[in-house]
Write a structure and sequence with these properties.
- This protein folds into two domains: 325 residues, Vaccinia Virus protein VP39 (Rossmann fold); 99 residues, NAD(P)-binding Rossmann-like Domain (Rossmann fold, 3-Layer(aba) Sandwich), CATH 3.40.50.720.
- It is built from 14 helices and 19 strands.
- The protein binds zinc ion.
- Zinc ion binds next to loops.
Length: 453
């Protein structure tokens, strides 16, 4: 089973979220782009309630869903430790009626979400690697680069994305964490730095502007996304392209992935809301597509207005998503979330009333949301299993006394049930666990709670 299955969650990339730290002055919103909210969470040690739309500043946000108060997904106490004080933050999902952005109603200081004790975990998994290779093929076919064209990746991690572009010409990563050093060792030039105006100015002075700028899983995480876009504009060549990948709201709603709601994810984009954001900075979306990473993401290509033809994919995707993401559809989604919770509780009760054991498989960040929202404790799920080497082993699941243990226990103990917390890849996991000798049944908690024999 690959790493993503067992919780080295690729969305928990501390370096990227740290980009949200205050980035010195100098950001001047464009005319028409309202100033972002004055209060920032980054650096405060606390949280800030979202009173106005994070993108368009609209003051009347509509509540969509409330998942209660959730602990930070990366704060896990050692097994055996007496429960001690732990913060919990309200997880309310809001929708902006003006720009349609779906967003979290609270911004928590990244320093709280990523404590220094949280060990860095590389987010590079097979699915991500394949996705980046496919991105490089798509760029080569749709927007071929010259051998001298520079490609820059923001939040470049260990350089996996850029390795797909390195053979054809110059590449440069920007990564604040030690993962950037791994990239350098692997031959990918990398600035070990936050992505901000001063880094961009240095790059432009030393390397020139980039023909292609990529940013995967940055856009949903950073507190001030306008500042990122402005820096991208400065970095990007006049007829360059900006490619961004983010969680996509459509599959989130369609397949009940409410468990991807936690405080690292500040925004849940549709193409319409991303387009609105980019257009505030005079960028035009020229191509868009759905991609499979993180249970369903969206890849968007943007350029300065009129520099590249707008492909039919943009209108097609907008037309397809619009009827699925109306305020009414989001209400239906919220109602279904409650129903799945009740359905799962009933299923769990049936199992527990027979005195049978349930072991959880995988402790990705999303498991914390599910466990805390549904109210699962150690009396329901005996333990959660992670692959050998996971830093989560030896800790309790956030907000609970459910211990995280090594996955060999699943095959040794053969509990009657294994509950899949990476349920979005259940079809991939079940045969693997069977092959490795697990004989019990599987509980797949979402999109519809079910047992697989
Ligand atoms: Zn808005």
């Amino acid at each position: 089973m690959d790493v993503v299955a067992l919780g080295a969650s690729p969305d928990a990339r501390p370096g990227e979220t740290k980009n949200a730290a205050p980035i010195g002055g100098g950001f001047k919103p464009l005319a028409g782009a309202p100033a972002p909210a004055a209060r920032k969470a980054a650096g405060t040690g606390h949280s800030v309630v979202v009173e106005r739309c994070q993108v368009c500043d609209w003051p009347q946000l509509e509540p969509v869903l409330f998942l209660g108060y959730l602990p930070p997904v990366n704060t896990m106490h050692a097994i055996g430790a007496r429960p001690s004080e732990q913060p919990a933050y309200p997880a309310q999902v809001l929708r902006c009626p003006k720009c349609s952005l779906v967003q979290l109603g609270l911004v928590v200081d990244p320093a709280v979400l990523f404590p220094p004790t949280y060990p860095y975990t590389s987010g590079t998994t097979r699915v991500l690697r394949e996705n980046f290779a496919e991105l490089a093929r798509e760029v080569a076919s749709l927007y071929p680069l010259e051998p001298t064209d520079l490609v820059v990746d923001i939040g470049s991690n260990d350089g996996t994305l850029l390795s797909n572009f390195a053979d054809r010409g110059p590449v440069l990563g920007i990564e604040p964490t030690n993962a950037g050093r791994l990239a350098v060792e692997a031959g990918i030039p990398t600035y070990i730095s936050f992505f901000n105006r001063s880094t961009v100015r240095r790059i432009v002075a030393e390397e020139g502007q980039a023909k292609l700028v990529t940013a995967t899983n940055v856009f949903a995480h950073v507190e001030n996304v306008h500042e990122v876009v402005e820096s991208v504009l400065e970095l990007m060549h006049d007829d360059g392209l900006f490619v961004t990948e983010s969680h996509y709201l459509l599959p989130l709603v369609r397949t009940m992935q409410y468990d991807t709601v936690y405080h690292e994810h500040l925004r849940y984009y549709s193409l319409a809301s991303l387009k609105h954001l980019l257009e505030m900075h005079d960028l035009e979306v020229v191509h868009a597509k759905a991609i499979p990473t993180h249970g369903g993401s969206i890849r968007v290509y943007a350029s300065r207005k009129g520099k590249h033809p707008v492909r039919d994919t943009v209108a097609a995707m907008l037309t397809a998503e619009a009827p699925e993401l109306t305020a009414q559809k989001l209400k239906d989604f919220a109602r279904k979330v409650v129903h799945t919770k009740l359905g799962l509780c009933k299923l769990l009760q049936d199992v527990k009333s027979k005195g049978q054991r349930i072991y959880g498989v995988g402790a990705p960040s999303r498991a914390s949301t599910l466990v805390n929202y549904v109210g699962i404790d150690e009396g329901v799920v005996d333990c959660v299993l992670e692959i050998h080497g996971s830093h989560k082993i030896g800790k309790y699941m956030p907000g609970t006394l459910i211990p995280v243990l090594e996955e060999t226990k699943l095959f040794e103990d053969q509990p009657e049930y294994a509950m899949l917390f990476s349920w979005h890849i259940a079809d991939e996991l079940i045969p693997k666990l069977r092959q490795r000798g697990f004989k019990g049944k599987f509980i797949v908690p979402l999109p519809e709670p079910r047992v697989v024999s």
